[in-house]
Amino acid sequence: MKKLFLITFLFSFVFSAFGQRNPNSEYWNTFHYKAKEGKEQNFIQAAAIKTKKFNTSPDNLIVTYRITTGENAGVYERIMPFQSSKRYDRDASKELKYWAENVAPYASPVGGQQIWIRQKWADVNIDPNDPPFKHLLKTTYIVKPTHQNHFGTFMARIGKIMAKRMPDAGRLVLRLFSGGQRNMFVSYIAFNTFEHNNPKFDSTWEDDYNEIFGWDSWNTDTKLFDESLEMIVGEQRVSLELVEELLPN
Q1: Entry pTM
Q2: Which of 15, 109, 168, 197 is buried most, with the most CB atoms less than 10 Å from its CB?
Q3: Which of 79, 63, 28, 76 is nearest to 248 (CA)?
Q4: Is 225 exposed, middle or buried (0-12, 13-18, 19+ CB in 10 A)?
Q5: How far is CA 227 from CA 155, 185, 223, in A?
Q6: Owning domain of residue 222
Q7: What's the maximum distance between 2 C-alpha atoms anywhere in the chain?
Q8: Is residue 8 part of a domain?
Q9: What does the pLDDT look like over 200-249, one tens digit per residue?
Q10: Cβ distance 32 to 76 under 8 Å?
Q11: Tally of domains within the chain
Q12: Has residue 172 been placed in a domain?
């Protein structure tokens, strides 16, 4: 039994460690900062210069949003999308030194860097060539390790309904690789205006879901989805707005 446990543990460790070396995966980095009291404009100005100096190329792009709701309202979330495993071999010492000397005096980090893997099966209306959306609705999920298939089933299926009913919005799902719990997922629903311009339907979301995936599948899948989440902190949601002053171009 001990030998079997050791083999299982080693397999899990090797699989996890190899994850960031997978050339077929796409990685996203997130960083969070809180401007020091009375230094918000200094932070924005300094971060804008740094972003334009270092973060305009597709392989090192950074887009910044401000959290507007919840206990972290006012915190800046800097997102580095579309990264490859090769990217983590590059020498970033000049960029980090510039940040430490010119931007860090005006802001404090909130937590550390987090590395995510994009779940492309969950994409809805995502085109890397499109400009950043103005608003994000970010939902963080803590999924029970034994229930990830139920979580994934509903997320994939509801994405197909969203693509039909919400063509003016996009959705991206990421799974945490490093910087916290590996059973953490985030969903970003992105849009440009709160007043939507989507087509009108005589059917409901539930109607469409059952029509595509079978009778009563909505009730079955939503129940299993709810049961897939950890009870206490299984689902948390915040809103974010794009900080246009910190766009790379």
Answers
A1: 0.90
A2: 168
A3: 63
A4: buried
A5: 14, 15, 6
A6: 24-246
A7: 60
A8: no
A9: 999 999 999 999 999 999 999 999 999 999 988 889 999 999 999 999 98
A10: yes
A11: 1
A12: yes
